[in-house]
Amino acid sequence: MVSPGPSNFTTKADQLIAGKRWTEAKSVLVDGLHEMPPNWVPIEIHNDEKAPTKRVIVHSWDGAEYLAFTNQHPIYGRGKSSSVWQGPSYSRADYLIAYVDEELGNLAEAAEALDQGLALEPDHPMLLAERALLYEKLRKFDEALKLYQRALDARVWAPNAQIGHVLRGQGYCLVELGRLDAAEEAYRKSLVLEPGNLSAINELGYIRTHRESPPNQNAPGVNPGGPIIPQRIRIGGNVQMAKLISKVPPVYPPLARQLGVHGVVNFSAVIGKDGTIVNLAVISGQIMLQDAAAEAIRQWVFMPTSLSGQSVEVATTIAVEFKLDEPLPPSTDGRPSVPAN
User: Fold this and answer.
1) CB–CB of 301/318 below 8 Å?
2) Which of 139, 179, 274, 301 has the fewest CB within 10 Å, making it most exposed?
3) What are the mean pLDDT values of the chain's consecutive 10-residue runs (341 residues total)?
4) 320 forms bridges with which residues in the sheet?
5) What interhelical angle do 198-212 and 180-193 show, nearest 10?
6) How many whole angstroms separate alpha carbon 129 and alpha carbon 162?
7) Which domains are assigned to the chain?
8) Are strands 263-271 and 310-322 parallel, antiparallel or unpaired?
């Protein structure tokens, strides 16, 4: 049984985040957290001696998590239980606030939000993984790896998508430490859980290329006996877009426009040391819009990123939005453009 609750403000926040309306999204989330009941917990177990079953209220993050709970959580092996999914999840609200703060470059505020979320739900893999990501951004890889492992061990009933996400984060961290065999193992495990995941496939390709062309020990960025300068760093999509210096707008596919297909296409991307796109993978978005978005992004150029005076690659996210009310491009054959009905 599913009950979204009287005020599932996180749904509205998701929509604002998809539209990159960061400030509005954070305001909605902060206001929603003010409504959190005292002593809120993500899983409520109610025992009634007169009832034949335990009643469990689950404040899951999404349907996949709720199904994983009902199918695999140990409580269902100890006796008869009935459950209901009821929103909102306040720990997820903290997670979304952290996501917004990261996109805005406010890492200290993001860390605070994640710590608040972990105080509510200390075993949630996504909260632990996002906290690990902040350690990565601070180049504290050993601390990040500990949190990724904690996320993997936290729940025997976690859904595949969450564990796959954690494994990919672990893999990225291991690549940065030069532990390519362990990184490859992590990415391959994630593909067992989520076959065809383009992010994992692309990272395995990166590992293969790195092995075939190991860094020159005399090259800039390699300092034997000194601090290691990473070859690639992560930067939030909103921060990275501020470094965009050449943008080719996407061409709206005519058929998609005629059918009323619109929305945001999200990508994971690797930007090379020269500022050009070297790797691009779709995360989400309408299939009819993906090729047009990718074709445009591959022509974009960003300001090169450096760390300690050395150029580095950047792993980031890119979002392209298609709006039906955008003006049609001028006709190239001398005839007026005709809008879709």
Assistant:
1) no
2) 274
3) 55 86 94 92 79 78 88 64 83 94 90 96 96 88 94 93 94 88 94 86 79 54 51 78 91 91 87 90 86 94 86 87 74 38 34
4) 265
5) 160
6) 9
7) 2-210 (1.25.40.10), 232-322 (3.30.2420.10)
8) antiparallel
